Amino acid sequence: MKLAASAKTILHVIDTTGPGGAETVFIQLADKLRQRGYRSIVVVRGPGWVYEQLLARGITPRIIAAKGSFNWRFLRELVRLIRREQVDVIQSHLLGSNVYCAMAGLLTRRPVIATFHGMVDVGPRERFRGLKLWLMNRGVTHFVAVSKSLRNAIDREGLLDPNKCEIIYNGIDLSRYGKTQSRDLRDKLGLSDDALMIGSLGNIRPAKGYDLLIRAARRVVDNFPQAHFVIAGDPKSSLQRQLDELCRQECLTDNVHFVGFCSDSAAFLAQLDYFLLSSTSEGLSIATVEALATGLPAVVTRCGGPEEILAADRDGLMVAVDAEAIAAGVMRLLGDAALANRLALSGLQTVRERFDVGIMLDEYCRLYG
Fold first, then answer.
1. Is the dihedral of CA 218, 220, 223, 229 positive or negative?
2. In this structure, what CATH number is given to the domain that contains residue 88?
3. HSE of 170 in the Cβ direction (CA atoms, 13 Å)?
4. For residues 50 and 131, is the Cβ–Cβ distance under 8 A?
5. What pLDDT, in 10s, does the model give residues 90-106?
6. pLDDT digits 0-9 by tens, 211-256
7. 241 and 345 inside one domain
8. Which of 348, 302, 12, 366 is nearest to 172 (CA)?
9. On the chain, which terminus has fewer CB atoms closer than 10 Å, C or N?
10. DSSP line for 39-54
């Protein structure tokens, strides 16, 4: 583990306040960089899950509201904070914060490390997209993409200066993950001991492909009646109502369970038998990394991120973004215990070698100088 050469102050800024993969990385950086000799100052847009998670780690975030397409008061307060606290490096995440921090970096002449977690950050329908890209290309010192596929997509679109782009995979604290004998989830859902729990982890949004999961579940349950699909994710979306209706149409209300937001992903995954990622698009997929670290046999879709996490048929099963293909992959695991065990062991070893949080911290520290 490398220690910082001096007690540099890092300002961490993110757009969002709720749970998610980008937010988890944001929290980990702010928290664990302190063990490397850095001082972390954190700015969030308001109270919420991110704020509470930081407090639990002994970090009191500064709240600066930033409503609207451009909030000059937010930029002014950000610049004042950078100067008052003698910030050495600005670390931002997601499009809005990356743009504001690029401007703050130009005004204060501080280096800016801007992390992108998915193509949604630079989507073609983004308002004032050209201006935002122009500001970032001038104010950001290093861009970080969390996967090669994301970096390649950014390059193909000609969005960001390729000479400034780095790839840093998201890492996790491996010590938190592993199987458990807890029956809390099984009891909560009223499931018997012979029930097979196939879990998914991710907020309820279109890119997670939960409609594909439900359609695949219909075929799986026809062949394995003891199969239960358990989805943990923030349900604050009109999409949840549509998915609930689809479950009713497919007569799956007893076999597909939406359990809502999960504050402890490690505890959730530890109680599962298998993991399923049904996404249509992923920057990397921390949930997949976490599942493999838990030792779960996994079925994942070819959606951009998982291809860089695991080797198909060695660390997990990789299938097309298609309900039939997903169902076939799940049934292959359910019907072959030896295969499931072999994939789980190999996936666990791969994650230990490539996705430990310490590796991620080493890479960010290198950029901080």
1. negative
2. 3.40.50.2000
3. 31
4. no
5. 999 999 999 999 999 99
6. 999 999 999 999 999 999 999 999 977 999 999 999 999 999 999 9
7. yes
8. 348
9. N
10. EEEEEESSSSHHHHHH
